[in-house]
Amino acid sequence: MKNKNTYIYAGILAVFVAVALGAPANPGTYGAWSLIPPVVMFAFILLTQKVLEGFVWGGLLAVFMKYKWGFLLTYNEKLLKQVTTEGNLWLILVLLTIGSIVAILDKSGLSRQFGLWAGSKAKSGKTALLINYLMGFFLSFDLYLSSSTVGACMTPVNDKYKTPREKTAYVTLSTAITLTHLYPIGTGAIFIAGLLVTNGYAAEGEGIRVFTGLVPLLFFPLAFLLVTLLNVIGVLPNIGPMKRAYASRDDAELKAASLIEEQEPERAAAEHASDRSQGDPAGKPSPHLIYFFIPIVIFIASTIYFKSNTQLGAFITILATGLIYVARGIFTAETYIATVLDGMKNMLELAVIMAAAFVLADSITDIGFTNYVVGIVSVFVIPKWLPLIIFLVFSATEFLVTLNWSLYIMAIPVLLQLSTSVGANTPLTLAALLSAGIWGASTCITSDIGLLTAYSTKTTVYRHFKTKLPYSLMAFVLSAIAYLIGGLFF
Question: What is the distance, to the nearest Å, from the Cα of residue 350 to the centroid of all Cα atoms in its chain?
C-alpha cells in the first residue's frame, strides 16, 4: 500500500511539473490542458477512494495551471469566495440544518419507531424498497428535501431486511434527482424554465409550459427511473458492486448477531416486545409515532410556502419541532439544542467536501473547460447527430466534474444558437444537454445530491458512487440510443 501511494503522489507531482513547464501562460483558453485537472481528480479518487483529497488535488491543479506559483493564496481566496457565495452558502446551510433534523429524529427514538412501523407494513425487503421508491414521487419537488427525508426514513426500514445501505441510497437518489426535473413544480424544472425565458427560447410567463414540452425528450431521467424500478421489483438483478454489497450482508457481524438471537431467545423476544417502549438512552418511553411525521409535514409545508426554499423550511422545522417536542416532554430544552448542534457537527465533513467541490468546479471553469468542450462540439456538427453528440460529450465532462446547473447557464445560449444555425432539432438538442446534466448530477462523485444521499442513508460517498454506477450506465446507454434515433428521424 505504501508503494502504491508513493507512485500515486509521485504521479501527481509529475503532473504539476508538466503543467508548470508546458501549460501556456495567460491564454484566453487552456484548450486540452483544461481536461487534466478533472481527469487527475477522478483517477486519484478511483485509485485511493479518498474523495475529499481528490477534490482538493483537482482544484489545486486547476488553480496552479492559471496562477502558477501564487496558487496556494489563490486557492484560499477561491475557497473563501465559494463558501460565502449566496447560493453555495445556502446549500451548506441546507446540509447543516438537515443534519439537525435527522439527529432530532434519531435521538428521540422516532426514526427507529418509524422503521418498525413501516417494517410491519412491508412484509419483505422487496416491498420495503418499493415503498422507498414510491416515497420519492411524493417528495421530489425538491431534490434536497427528497434525498434527505426519504433516505433518513427508509434506511432503518431497509436495514431490518438486511438491504445494503448502498441500495437504499441508489433507490433514494434515483427518484430525487429525476423527478425534480420532470415535475413542473420541481426546483430543477423551475430553474430551467427560467433559463429558457432568459435566453429567449420561451416567452415571459411561458417558461414552464415550454419546459413541459421538453419532458418527454428527457430520456436519461425517464430511463433511470425505469431501470431503478426494474431493479427494485427484481426484474433487473443486482450486479457488480451492488451484488457484492448484498453478499457482504452475511459477514461475521451479522452471523454473530444471528447466533446471539438463537442462543438467547428470551432476550430477543423481550427486546422485540419493548420496541415501542424503548425511547431515548435514558429509558424514557418513545413518543407516539405521529410525532415522527410532524417535522416532516412542517418541512414540506414551509418549503412549499417559501417558494421551495429548503434551507428556510429546514430552519423553521427545527424551531417549530423544538417547541412541540419540548412541550411534550420528548426533549428538554438543553438536550434539544445539544442534539441540533450534534446534527450539524455530523454534517461538517460533508460541508467541507462540498466546499472543496465548489472550488474544483469554479477552477476548471476558470481555465475554460466548458468553453473548450463546446468549441470541440461545434467543429464536428452534423445536424442529425447533434443531440447525440451533445449528450455524449457533456455526459463525459459531467461525469468527471459535474457543474450542476452552472452547465445549463453556460451552455444553453450557445446550443440554442448552434442548433438553429445548423438546422438541428432544437428541443431535442436542449433535452440532450439537460439529460447530460442530470446524468452528471446523479452519477458524478462530486455531485452535491450524491453526497447528501450518501449521508442520509449512512453509507460512504465512494461506495454510493460505485454501486449505483452500473444502473446509471444502463440508463445512459438507453438514452444515447434514443437520442441517436430521435436525431436521425425527427
Answer: 12
How many other C-beta atoms can be found within 10 angstroms of the C-beta atom of residue 81?
13
Q: Which domain holds residue 37?
A: 1-84
Q: Which three cell numbers stand for residue 443?
A: 452519477
Residue 106 forms part of a structural domain? no
The answer as to whether 22 is a domain residue is: yes
Q: Which of 291, 308, 305 is nearest to 145 (CA)?
A: 308
- Residue 264: band (very low, low, confident or very high) from pLDDT cuts 50, 70, 90: very low
Backbone angles phi, psi at 95, to 5 degrees: -60, -45
448, 404 contact by CB (below 8 A)? yes
How far are the Cα atoms of 305, 360, 480 from residue 60, in angstroms, in the given order? Answer: 41, 8, 34
For residue 480, being part of any structural domain is answered with: no
CB 241 within 8 A of CB 469: yes
- Is 301 inside a domain boundary? no
Q: Is 258 exposed, middle or buried (0-12, 13-18, 19+ CB in 10 A)?
A: exposed
Per-residue pLDDT band for 332 (boundaries 50, 70, 90) equals: very high
Radius of gyration of the chain (CA): 24
* Whole-Å CA distances, 406 to 141, 370, 378: 20, 10, 20
**The three three-digit cell numbers of residue 434, written as one number:** 439537460
Angle (nearest 5°) at CA 165 between 164 and 171: 100
Alpha carbons 374 and 411: distance in angstroms, whole number: 8
394 contacts: CB under 8 Å, gap ≥ 6: 373, 407, 411, 432, 433, 436, 437, 440
> Which one, of 434, 373, 445, lies nearest residue 409 by Cα?
434
Are 391 and 482 contacting, i.e. CB atoms less than 8 angstroms apart?
no
Q: Give the total number of structural domains in the chain.
A: 1
Helices within 23-70 (DSSP H only): 36-48, 51-67
Three cell numbers written together for 486: 430521435
- Cβ neighbours of residue 395 closer than 8 Å, sequence gap 6 or more: 435, 436, 439, 440, 476
Rounded CA-CA distance 474/211 in Å is 25
Global pTM reads: 0.75
In this structure, what C-alpha cell is assigned to residue 352? Answer: 467541507
Residue that has been written with the C-alpha cell 461525469 in this structure: 399
Higher pLDDT, 282 or 292: 292
